[in-house]
Amino acid sequence: MPQIGVRFHELMKGWIAVPQASLEDSERAWLELRADVYIENLDAFLADDGHRGQLVGTIDFGRFGHSIPAVGHVELFTMSADSATRLMRYQASFVVNGLEYKMIGTKYVAKSAGPNVWRHTTTLFTTIARNGPGDYVFVAAGVIRLSFWQGTRMLFTLRGTGSDSLATRSKAVFRFVKFFASEVSAVYFR
User: Fold this and answer.
1) Which of 23, 91, 125, 138 is most exposed, with minimal Cβ within 10 Å?
2) Residues contacting 105, CB < 8 A, separation 6+
């Protein structure tokens, strides 16, 4: 029996800070993440507290270039240590000039930060690190966002996968949207 899932496309972008070796003013660089998110098995995704999906996409980073292939994962609405906040984590690895980098980002969905649900679910606090000897070295940090226009476009990219049946694929989309709405409700309307 095929696994029923969902997929969607997300575009987040913004300016991030790049620290200088001389410890003077940070430079700024434009960062865009174009991500296709695949949740291949929706039942397993919903049952798992990590709610993990696969991320495949490209990164535009002013310091390195455009359309750099990136792969990784997302975790949607994982419980934080305080149990009042849900985290949406993004991680994408990419290679530039033979060096491995990692983009790590987190969205904090919390009622304590105010009632702006849109801002909380679309603002990604982001760090870029380079794989160095023994550990990663941080090279940039900032905030990228999903604009209202891109958020609307993202909804139109949401598709059911794993079946030839339109009804089955539509049901998968409905279940994913219901999951998203119930997680937001659990945070803001509990």
Assistant:
1) 23
2) 33, 89, 90, 91, 124, 125, 126, 127, 144
Measured CA to CA in angstroms, residue 119 lies from 91, 93, 146, 187 at distances of 20, 25, 9, 14
In tens, the pLDDT along 159-179 reads: 999 999 999 999 999 999 999
pLDDT in tens, 53-98: 999 999 999 889 999 999 999 999 998 888 778 999 999 999 999 9
Beta-carbon count within 10 A of 28 CB? 14
Task: Please give the average per-residue pLDDT across 87-113, as a whole number.
Answer: 92
Whole-number Å distance between alpha carbons of 158 and 19 = 37
Confidence of residue 113 (pLDDT cuts 50, 70, 90): low
Tokens of 31: 């960062």
Which residues 6+ apart lie within 8 Å of 130 measured at CB? Answer: 99, 100, 101, 136, 137, 139
In 10 A of CB 38, how many CB atoms? 16
Residue 134: DSSP 8-state:
S
Q: Which residues contact 131 (CB under 8 A, 6 or more apart)?
A: 99, 100, 101, 102
Q: How far is CA 174 from CA 18, 124, 185, in A?
A: 41, 25, 16
